[in-house]
User: What shape does this take?
Amino acid sequence: MKKTHQEQFYQLLRLSMGLAEQENFEASADDWKWLYEEAGRQSLTGVIYGAVAQLTDSHRPPLELLIQWMCEAENIKHMNELLNQESARLTKLFGDAGRRTAILKGQANARLYPDKLLRDPGDIDLWVEGGRDGVIALLRKLGLVDDGPLHEFDRPDRATISYHHVHLPDNDKGVSVEVHFRPTSGNLNPFTNRRMQRWLEEEIKKSKAVQATPPDSGAEEVTFNMPTIRFALVMQLSHIQHHFFDGGIGLRQICDYYMLLRHATDDDRRVVASQLKRFGLRYMAGAMMWVLGETLHLEPGLMLCEADAKRGRQLLDEIMAGGNFGKFNDRKKTDSDIVFIVRKERMRMQMASLNPSEMLWVELNHWREVFSRLPERIRRRRLSLR
Assistant: This one.
């Protein structure tokens, strides 16, 4: 029986991680077109190309598509080399100022993949010790932030601030950097969030320097600090939950989490599993374990908890519908503001089972922000509530 497009895509994901046999893969020219486009929607162009490169000639995409894909993969490699260099430079810059640092998520996750330069990169997430006021003061001292106010609205030409980080304007190399003064955006439930943030603040102090340059790559050797796997498993599960309720997540985050679990020790998984309920992550963890089993065939022995099929199907459906961070959900582009709001509220209610307590706080926070930002939106004539 012919595999569906999604089944083909998951097989390529497993192949990219050394978990599937290429001989069993078959795809037509139309299939390859869909697979290529889906790789872009999920920000997995480089990772999936890693699987394509392993296929024999008879199993590969049409030549024109293959060449285009190869060029994009090379660009991804060059971008990862640049981000690694910038991560090392920023680590030294803040280290020379006497601050501990750690590179979070993207560039730290990339080190865990079979090909460390093929993970599609984003921005640099850098944690710097010192707390909100201390980090902002240091950013001003280093000339990375001017003396003006930090805005909460997105401003490409100015630094902006959120609950957990300062987002710097793109530098002259086109690199975007988020300087974290808290490890994560966390939960909106203040009780579970407080417990989790305290635990993460202690765990991130155990970060260690790692060599970011792949062996025999010919790239300049660079080093930066990377947090423990335990920290990453909690922080990134929280990050996934936050973005899922806020707009969506993609398969790139699922692949990242898979690599974390593969590199975790039994003790790492035991410690993290013991904290899931306290940190308000138990339901999302169950859904994630099911998705990881369905897409990447994660073994039960590597799971943090029992897989939750009902919540997992709901999570995977949203991932495949919206792509990376939900950016490719066509409904968002065509709906009027009123229809968009009604549809989003209905979707949130449908997703409430993934974490009822957190969803309550998501709703309260959403409407608090809507009303608190109305004066600024009116002043800037930006009345859309999206």
Summary: The mean pLDDT is 87. The first strand starts at residue 101 and ends at 104. The radius of gyration is 21 Å.
